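Hi R.,

Here's the chain you asked about this morning:
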Amino acid sequence: MKTKRSLAVGVIGILAIVGLLGRTASAQAPSPAAAPAPATLACDNDPPPDTNQPRNPNLPPVQNPTATPINASLLTKGLPCAENVSPLGLFGDDGLANLQRGFDFYSWLTFLALNAPADGSRIDQAKPNTPTKWAQPSNFKQLLDVMREDGKASKWEDKKIVPPECLDQYNKLKGQVMVIEMIEESFNEPFKTGPLIDQQGNYAIFDILMNKSMFDYIQQHNLQSKAGQQSKENASLKIDFPAGANKGPPAQANRPPDDPGAVMVKVSWKVLDAPAERQNFHTVDALVLMPRHPNETAKPPCLRKTLGLVGFHVGHKTVGRRQWIWTSFEHKQNVPEQQEVDRQEAKAKGPYNFYNPDCVACPVNQTPPTPWQPTYKNGLKFHDSKFRSHITRVIPLTDETKKMNKQFQDILVNTVWKNYMLLSTQWPSNFNCARQKDASTPPVPEPATDFKKEPDMNCAPAPTFLANSTLETYSQGTDPLASSSCVACHGNAVSQQVRPPNMTAEDFFNQSDFTFMLEKARGGPKP
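And the predicted structure, written out as tokens:
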């Protein structure tokens, strides 16, 4: 049966995008050796819709709408500047279902554009280790490189910050390698709910990145340091990241037409020790710095590993969805759905990255035994050599999402990208609420997001719950007080701004525009 979607408002979720912050002094890396210039990541301000229904409400609807063909022509489309959706579509008068299909179509276009080869070639020609656009420093920066330990401002074109323990290897590899510093947020899931251990006994690894629009806003307002956020100049600032817009109204003033607005990406990786595994994943060559232990006298080891992509989150702010659009993808062999386990279908569909169908007695969706922190001795192996995470998907994918996934996977059939699937797209479903702008006098700068949308600043996210099995493993479900909801959770994110003595509590508004990044800012000189 088709899974029903609810318009109920999600309450507190556990989809916190937390930053990965190193606490040691890092070295500026030399420029990498000559390599093909990365293809640009300018956005498409006229992205294709999911059907031929007109998006202009003044035009008559098509009586027998047809779906936009999902074929190779979509593989060269750019990153959507914003959604292009309509309550009219293939499902008659079911406006919610029509909109959900439109947002899911947008999510697949986003996934294809971000993961397109960095050299400008087509994604259907990519090899497992072909570098992607989102992984290029010219397109996205790791949070480590923005929220620096010294709190200093930086420029987009600044060279990669490499921990000194990894610098020699980085130089020998001519900079053609990803660097991940293992701090708590890179192995412990949001709100310290625990690590995820794969079937080979390795930790899953997490990382977060931001695009240039977010970076520029942070630097412009001196938000990259704790001292900057707490300054008198920022006490009254309403943090409002740029929003992407398609051509025509509603547009955001003073933004270039190919600027997507704020986009943040969170990824999860699986360590691939066996060469045979690497043919099933998008892979990167990485230097992984082990966590620093205060009781260790030795320097933390920097391990060279091949990592395989297993989870991919995208948050994108647009003028029509100022609570952001939340996209979540996974590797299709991560976990079975719980209903497949109940029907004894899971084993035939395995093997899985985070589930063992032969372990009938293993508790499902349980956190690992403590301690959780990796050790120098064990490297990226969990301390309990017998423990493996045994994870199932609590909320199944809808039939329509599975159908769309199959269509996109078919045009990627000769690549590893056929192994990835959309879970769903969460979006603020109350349109009037989601578009509402701040009407203060004098007018506030664009995009002028109104964050006081009472009684629901989240604008009724749909679907109510959304959880990635690799990123919100232990908060899956439909419990309004505990289960994962991207919008509901991120609606609670705040900055480190401080209310001045002459400002009332009612006038002080230290929200951070649906991102936890600003909480990760560290020290720095007083501005």
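Residues 27-520 form one domain.

Let me know if you need anything else.
M.
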